[in-house]
Design brief:
The complex is a heterodimer of chains A (76) and B (737).
Chain A: E1 11-17, H1 22-30, E2 38-44, E3 51-55, E4 58-62, H2 64-67, E5 70-75
Antiparallel strand pairs in A: 1-2, 1-5, 2-3, 3-4
Chain B: H1 10-13, E1 21-27, H2 33-41, E2 45-49, E3 56-64, E4 67-73, H3 85-97, E5 101-107, H4 111-122, E6 128-133, H5 135-140, E7 144-145, H6 147-154, E8 157-160, H7 169-181, H8 195-211, H9 215-218, H10 221-229, H11 233-238, H12 249-258, H13 262-281, E9 282-283, H14 292-300, H15 306-350, H16 355-392, H17 394-408, H18 416-424, H19 426-432, H20 439-448, H21 458-468, H22 473-497, E10 508-510, H23 519-553, H24 565-577, H25 585-593, H26 600-609, H27 623-646, H28 652-656, H29 663-672, H30 675-687, H31 692-702, H32 706-732
Parallel strand pairs in B: 1-4, 1-5, 5-6, 6-8
Antiparallel strand pairs in B: 2-3, 3-4, 7-9
The chains are: A alpha+beta (76), B alpha/beta (737).
Chain lengths: 76, 737
């Protein structure tokens, strides 16, 4: 399961930053998107993309395309 | 980056005094770093660009307690990784120019993520003083900090600050001086990355010391080793180290225990350190309460309300930018064209200056200066509102809401605002592209802005529509705006697939909490920008204005406009335009002068087609009366500007542009154009090269003429092609009669 599949309000934990490479991967890691980190999907933009998540206590937005590369497991 | 010392020329003057203390200011975006620097340095800030790039550089030289301090603001970054322009600038500055001290501005309400950068700054071995900013807000949220704990655990000085309330600033500077006085006692602590990493670091250190001992004189040791550990390509190439130069056994143990991805391992280790520190020094009650930002976002980013609210906000920004500034722009224009020209003529007449100098001074110089000044109000207003949108946190939301639509054109959510401003005037639009971080997005947006039909093109439409389409003027003008937008979409996709192919765009952006920006900081920022425009762009525009004066008036003593250099250029250009339906030297000459500003097309046409009979002599006004008029009309401008805020939306500019009597001109162009060629002409005016001021703005923002060259080339081709399709296509369909 990847981050773009999660619904607003759902919480999860990042398992792996999978397919992202180079600058995108590094940027994600620098923003705190790391394996083991809890994440919560807050909103989807009115036009359906990008999405907003809470991670490390702040709000981050990213496109679905980028979120698709991030493997997560949903926590209840 | 080019070679450069942090201690620049000014210092040589006061060589007897100790050189200034060089303090670099580093921090994440959205932590109030600019506000803090504005609060400390005020108007002593010097704004420029980092060499060779479009990223803004701020510096200030001032004294605190008798010690000279040079403050250098580094771009806001989340990390010192080698990818984004901002990060490369920050790290090159820190590593190569080695400031005496780093002030790390940290958002106290978001300690952990901010400490991730702090940890990296500490690796440089330069003394760090932490400004724990937004401290008041953090305390109000119930956060408590163990400041002494931070100092002892990190080995950095800590001062709580609140930049918007200007508190803690003196203490911060005191701490900076205190730390700088004993740098040896204030080395940041060396943080432990765990046994496995540390063993590998030690091995790597031994290898490098043996084989490349010179490196340690050039780079901070710990930083060099840690960066090489995580596989920093940029650094490896910089020091000419082959990919396989480092023995594999250094990493072998590490890879076996922690997996292949050392970059992730190091990022993880740094974040663990940040998290550990935050846990030790920050006490907060763990209760999830709905905060103001969340409440606002529930409405502002709502699935149904999000877009209407965004459009309303944009409409407001657009209206305020242009309506508030227009009366002042008009006032400056009237003053330059009225009293100032008048006085200059009188004064030059008194000293017996020849006629041509009078003409050069009034038509060339004063018109040029006036032309520069006319832009000042709109640039100031635009900067004010853009800075407000950014500082308040709404800019990120605007990007979030619009990104899907903009991304389809290969743009970024933040591209919307520069494009929108382009409808008022392309120039502030170009300057507004600096809100985009990625150079690719910035350039692509700027290239499309000239397709937004600006206010200066409207007088041309009004003239031609009045002469040829009096029955449905609105529809015809509207069609031109739509054509511009449609072509922007097409060109956006085209550029995405050609010029910018292969460049991965990304949208990984923080949505910062809403905050009220400080008014002083807003004004300072606006002032810096306006000043920058006046000095840099002003010089170029003045030069061009004088050049055009020569074109119009040389060879000296020309009787007929046709014989001036401009007329001659028009005659050369005319055949190129004949497939478009307006291959006359008059039309061509008007288009040439329109390069200064597209509304000038109308003025030139007026002079060429329907010259005024005899010189209009202004009644002799005294200086006293003129001064009075200046003051009175300024008062009117203030009033008009204020009333514009409350007035409802109306197409006021349409009416305003008709104030001059264009009757004779309309009659003449009705004889030389057909409705079809008139429409083709309007299409051409919409699309052909951006005006001089846009060119200069592009040059200023991108550091070279390259992107203006691209805009010039594609727009010329597009203008010619579209006008040709309209005219020839129309003729085929039998509309040409």
């Amino acid at each position: 399961m990847h981050l773009a599949m999660m619904k607003p309000g759902q919480q999860g934990k990042i398992v792996h930053i999978g397919t992202a490479v180079g600058p995108i991967k590094r940027r994600l890691m620098d923003m705190g998107v790391l394996a083991g980190e809890p994440v919560r999907v807050e909103k989807v933009a009115p036009l359906g993309d990008p999405i907003e998540v809470t991670i490390k206590g702040y709000n981050l937005s990213l496109r679905k395309k980028e979120a698709e590369g991030i493997e997560v497991e949903v926590t209840p | 980056m080019t070679e450069q010392t942090p201690h620049t020329a000014n210092d040589a003057v006061s060589s007897a005094a100790p050189r200034p203390l060089v303090v670099a200011v580093a921090g994440n975006p959205n932590v109030g770093k600019s506000t803090l620097i504005n609060a400390i340095a005020g108007t002593r800030l010097q704004v420029g660009n980092w060499p060779g790039v479009t990223v803004e550089k701020k510096e200030a030289l001032f004294e605190h307690n008798g010690r000279k301090i040079r403050l250098v603001d580094l771009p806001g970054t989340y990390s010192l990784s080698p990818y984004t322009q901002e990060e490369i600038i920050a790290r090159d500055y820190l590593v190569k120019l080695r400031p005496d001290l780093i002030v790390n501005v940290v958002d106290a309400t978001n300690l952990e993520r901010n400490l991730y950068l702090t940890v990296q700054l500490m690796e440089l071995g330069i003394p760090v003083v932490m400004a724990l900013n937004i401290y008041d807000e953090a305390e109000a949220k119930g956060y408590r900090f163990n400041l002494h704990g931070i100092e002892t655990m990190l080995g950095v000085g800590v001062v709580p600050t609140s930049a918007t309330r200007r508190s803690g600033l003196t203490e911060l500077l005191d701490k900076v001086l205190e730390t700088a006085a004993q740098p040896a006692d204030h080395a940041p602590r060396i943080l432990n990355y765990g046994d496995d990493v540390e063993t590998a670091v030690a091995l790597l250190g031994d290898t490098l010391r043996r084989e490349h001992p010179a490196l340690f004189a050039l780079y901070p040791e710990r930083w060099l080793l840690l960066r090489l550990m995580e596989g920093d390509e940029r650094l490896r190439q910089e020091i000419n180290l082959a990919q396989d130069a480092l023995p594999e056994e250094i990493f072998h143990h590490l890879r076996r225990g922690h997996g292949e991805d050392l970059e992730a391992l190091m990022a993880d280790a740094r974040y663990s350190q940040a998290a550990g520190l935050a846990r030790e020094v920050l006490f907060k009650k763990e209760e999830r309460r709905v905060e103001m930002t969340e409440r606002i976002d529930r409405v502002v980013l709502n699935r149904f309300l999000g877009i209407p609210i965004f459009l309303a906000a944009m409409w407001l920004v657009f209206k305020l930018t242009f309506d508030l500034s227009k009366p002042f722009g008009d006032w400056i224009n009237d003053m330059a064209g009225g009293p100032f020209k008048h006085w200059t003529t009188v004064l030059l007449g008194l000293v017996g200056a020849p006629d041509w100098t009078v003409s050069l001074a009034t038509e060339g110089v004063i018109s040029g200066v006036g032309f520069v000044l006319v832009f000042v109000p709109v640039i100031f207003m635009m900067m004010f509102f853009i800075t407000f949108l950014e500082g308040s946190g709404y800019m990120a939301r605007a990007a979030f809401v619009m990104d899907r639509a903009m991304h389809a054109m290969g743009l970024h959510g933040k591209s919307f605002i520069p494009l929108l401003l382009g409808f008022g005037c392309n120039v502030p639009g170009i300057y507004a592209t600096r809100t985009l971080e990625n150079p690719r997005d910035k350039v692509l947006t700027a290239l499309l802005i000239p397709l937004m039909s600006c206010g200066a093109r409207l007088p041309v439409y009004v003239l031609f529509v009045g002469a040829f389409f009096p029955n449905n003027p609105g529809t015809v003008i509207w069609s031109l705006y739509v054509l511009g937008i449609a072509l922007a979409i097409v060109m956006g996709v085209f550029f995405k697939r050609t010029l910018f192919r292969g460049e991965a765009p990304m949208f990984i952006m923080e949505l910062p909490p809403y905050r009220m920006p400080s008014f002083t900081s807003l004004c300072l920022h606006t002032w810096e920008k306006g000043k920058h425009f006046l000095i840099k762009a002003g010089t170029y525009i003045l030069a061009v204005s004088i050049f055009v004066w020569f074109l119009l008036n040389l060879p000296w003593g020309v009787e007929h406009k046709k014989d001036s250099y401009l007329g001659q250029a028009g005659q050369v250009m005319a055949p190129v335009l004949s497939p478009l339906g307006f291959g006359t030297w008059q039309a061509a000459s008007s288009l040439i002068t329109g390069v200064i500003a597209k509304e000038i097309v109308v003025g030139t046409m007026g002079e060429i087609y329907a010259p005024k009979k005899g010189e209009q002599k202004k009644p002799e006004a005294s200086f006293g009366e003129d001064l009075q008029e200046i003051a009175v009309s300024f008062g009117k401008a203030v009033k008009e500007s204020a009333s514009n805020v409350v007035s409802t939306f109306g197409v006021s500019s349409l009416a305003a542009d008709e104030k001059e009597d264009r009757g004779p001109l309309k009659a003449t162009i009705q004889q030389t154009f057909t409705p079809l060629s008139a429409y083709a002409f309007m299409v051409f005016v919409l699309l052909y090269m951006p005006c001089v001021v846009v060119a200069i703005a592009m040059r200023q923002e991108f550091g070279s003429w390259k992107w203006f060259g691209v805009a010039f080339a594609y727009q010329s081709a597009l203008a010619w092609g579209m006008a040709m399709i309209v005219y020839q296509g129309g003729q085929l369909l039998g509309w040409g009669v």
